[in-house]
């Protein structure tokens, strides 16, 4: 694929697909990493005389306009990272009117692209309509490259296309650290997006020596083994998938580690009263009890597992890291991995919006070998899959 250096940008309208799907609480961005990492691409385009219009999604509005998922929430953080004004275009019609006249100094941002059903459906007419807003397409959204959507894939058929700086850097770094990883290789997979990630594990276990499962993902596995997880975040629709993964891991010789204890509470709140409960197939929680973090015995098991590894990939926190004390296991495990990395014993690569936020909170993000902005895309890349957003750049219009 081409880079920003291969296309003439001067006076050109450049459609830049970025991923600024960042954590927001009470309308404020709590971790701006993804926003900061796309800034060099936008600045480069401006320096080359191009007129950037950013295309981005926020959350999963499922093709409906939803004010709670407006990109207006990330606008201040975006303007701060880019050090210039960003104009939010609330509709495609507004974008169509403005894209022809925009001042080169203004960065344009189209409102949440997932408000349109044509985006996730990769509708060819929608992709064509988007493409008409620009002269060049630049994809800098590595973390959304596992989605074959109109703005990540379909659009490239209609415009000369290139990869942005972050997309290039991500692919290079992952290739360098993980294309032939030193074994044993382990992964931590946690977080709340169970349905998005669980199917990936079936292939991933073939490439791993150890898989440590945490968060909502672990609750789903424990539920699949027969535990009554009470009000814990889990997705029972995936119990069969979880059992298949455990069987596949056994065939592939991959050790799967589930939490053996957890911090259990009746209230999802910072500082909520909690107790340590043993977890396993026999666990029976009350219907209002939930596991919000892995417990101390599980952290020791994670420590021992990390010590046996040469390469670690990490996607998804082990608990509700955003509210203390349910960040304890994630912070402890992050610090263990960071120390081993500093000691030269471990290559550690972490990815995903929440994971990056958790490692920042633990104060160790800079100590990891590489931090990717991607979560699901990173895992699919790790599985050996060709990502549609990357493939589209190779087969682009010019
Ligand atoms: C992410 O947060 O991993 C990306 O922005 C993709 O989001 P999605 O899982 O909703 O497609």
Label this structure with key terms.
single chain, 14 helices, Rossmann fold, six-stranded parallel beta sheet, 2 domains, alpha/beta
Q: What does this entry look like structurally?
A:
The chain has 398 residues and is an alpha/beta fold. It folds into 2 domains: 4-168 and 387-394, 3-Layer(aba) Sandwich (Rossmann fold); 180-367, Phosphoglycerate kinase, N-terminal domain (Rossmann fold, 3-Layer(aba) Sandwich), CATH 3.40.50. It has helices spanning 33-47, 75-82, 92-99, 117-120, 124-131, 165-178, 194-204, 215-224, 239-252, 296-307, 328-342, 353-362, 376-383, 388-394; strands at residues 13-17, 24-25, 28-29, 51-55, 86-89, 107-110, 136-139, 161-163, 185-189, 210-213, 255-257, 261-265, 274-278, 290-294, 311-315, 347-351, 370-372. It has a 6-stranded parallel beta sheet. The protein has a 6-stranded parallel beta sheet with strand order 11-10-9-15-16-17, with helices on both faces. It has a 3-stranded antiparallel beta sheet with strand order 13-12-14. It starts with 12 loop residues before the first strand and ends with a helix. Bound molecules: 3-phosphoglyceric acid (3PG). 3-phosphoglyceric acid binds at residues 19, 21, 60, 143-144, 147, 196, 353, 375-376. Pathway: Carbohydrate degradation; glycolysis; pyruvate from D-glyceraldehyde 3-phosphate: step 2/5. Pfam families: PGK. Monomer. InterPro entries: Phosphoglycerate_kinase, Phosphoglycerate_kinase_CS, Phosphoglycerate_kinase_N, Phosphoglycerate_kinase_sf.
């Amino acid at each position: 694929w081409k880079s920003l250096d291969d296309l003439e940008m001067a006076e050109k309208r450049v459609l830049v697909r970025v991923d600024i799907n960042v954590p927001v609480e009470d309308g404020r961005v709590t971790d701006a990493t993804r926003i900061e990492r796309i800034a060099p691409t936008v600045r480069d385009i401006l320096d080359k005389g191009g007129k950037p219009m950013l295309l981005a999604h926020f959350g999963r509005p499922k093709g409906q306009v939803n004010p709670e998922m407006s990109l207006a929430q990330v606008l201040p953080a975006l303007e701060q990272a880019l050090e210039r004004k960003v104009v939010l275009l609330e509709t495609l019609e507004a974008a169509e009117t403005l894209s022809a006249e925009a001042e080169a100094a203004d960065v344009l941002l189209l409102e949440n692209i997932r408000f349109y059903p044509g985006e996730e459906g990769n509708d060819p007419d929608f992709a064509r309509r988007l493409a008409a807003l620009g002269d060049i397409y630049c994809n800098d959204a590595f973390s959304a490259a596992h989605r074959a959507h109109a703005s990540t894939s379909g659009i490239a058929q209609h415009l000369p296309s290139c990869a942005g700086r972050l997309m290039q850097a991500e692919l290079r770094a992952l290739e360098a650290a993980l294309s032939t990883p030193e074994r044993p290789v382990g992964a931590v997979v946690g977080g709340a997006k169970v349905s998005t990630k669980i199917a990936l594990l079936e292939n991933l276990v073939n490439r791993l020596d150890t898989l440590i499962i945490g968060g909502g993902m672990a609750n789903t596995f424990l539920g699949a083994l027969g535990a009554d997880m009470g009000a814990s975040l889990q997705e029972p629709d995936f119990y069969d998938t979880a059992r298949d993964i455990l069987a596949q891991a056994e065939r592939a010789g991959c050790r799967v580690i589930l939490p053996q204890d957890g911090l259990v509470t009746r209230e999802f709140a910072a500082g909520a009263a909690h107790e340590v409960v043993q977890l396993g197939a026999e666990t029976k929680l009350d219907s209002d009890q939930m596991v919000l973090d892995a417990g101390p015995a599980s952290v020791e098991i994670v420590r021992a597992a990390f010590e046996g590894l040469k390469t670690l990939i990490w996607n998804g926190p082990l608990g509700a890291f955003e509210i203390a004390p349910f960040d304890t296991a994630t912070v402890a495990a992050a610090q263990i991995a960071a120390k081993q990395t500093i000691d030269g014993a471990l290559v550690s690569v972490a990815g995903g919006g929440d994971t990056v936020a958790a490692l920042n909170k633990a104060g160790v993000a800079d100590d990891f070998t590489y931090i990717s902005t991607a979560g699901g895309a990173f895992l699919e890349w790790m599985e050996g899959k060709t990502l549609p957003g990357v493939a589209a750049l190779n087969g682009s219009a010019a």
